[in-house]
């Protein structure tokens, strides 16, 4: 499963509740109220500055809205307070990685070593951490050799993952095949990931992403239908599917329906509500409904006021 796409879906799965009631950070994030969660966590940290869990959760809240400059110091503080916890190193590595993706070549090159170090440490501390092994494998796949990239090392991680999570292992093998421009093997591995995960919506989405990259858009759309029809173990897959359809300008009415389904009160977790409103705004804007688009962009900013994409879009439609 692709690391960047999976981050939001993974976030809520391991968020511990810090307090009972609807005002806890985990409850606020589940409701998509990222700003309120950040405010609550910041207040808690002022009262308990040595609590590593609070700093870790604050990092992940900032991560959710793409604020890497605030996420990194929060994650660094969590690691410094509890260096023995694998998950803290994993999320610090992810924050470094996202910052690198958004930076100039020189800055990114300087951060790459930190990404590798944190992912490797996360695996050393807890070898059974399948998410850490997947992220480390993707780093080895994507990074140039001069900064630690190695397809052999990626294969070694895939071999270990086969013992822990075969679905993730087949995803890594699929990415390796893509790197080798062997699309036949890549497709076979992504389908093996679907089988190994018993039809996981995430695995169907990964296959859809492969079809998008190879220009097989009809098959992409069919795979997204399969992803959305499966029981969503991670509700954010609906947002990811809608984003992919919007990106390829395909089935926009279906994309809007997925977003509305995600935002339905029946949805248990709405971490990406701010993003869902933003994407709905994009669809309405494409359809010429600037007023409706502005309404969705404002709804996005109500939940995450620092979300730059919604801010720029609102300015664009004159909201």
Would you mind describing this structure in some detail?
- The protein has 18 helices and no strands.
- The protein has a domain of 126 residues: Tetratricopeptide repeat domain (Serine Threonine Protein Phosphatase 5, Tetratricopeptide repeat, Alpha Horseshoe), CATH 1.25.40.
- The two termini are 37 Å apart.
- Helices cover 74% and strands 0% of the residues.
- Helix 4 packs antiparallel against helix 5, helix 4 packs parallel to helix 6 and helix 11 packs antiparallel against helix 12.
- It is an all-alpha fold and 319 residues long.
What is the fold's blueprint, element by element?
Elements lengths: L2 H11 L11 H6 L3 H14 L4 H13 L3 H14 L4 H16 L3 H21 L4 H13 L8 H14 L1 H14 L3 H14 L4 H13 L3 H13 L6 H12 L4 H12 L9 H14 L3 H14 L4 H9 L3
Helix pairs in contact: 3-4, 4-5, 4-6, 5-6, 6-7, 7-8, 8-9, 8-10, 9-10, 10-11, 11-12, 12-13, 12-14, 13-14, 14-15, 14-16, 15-16, 16-17, 17-18
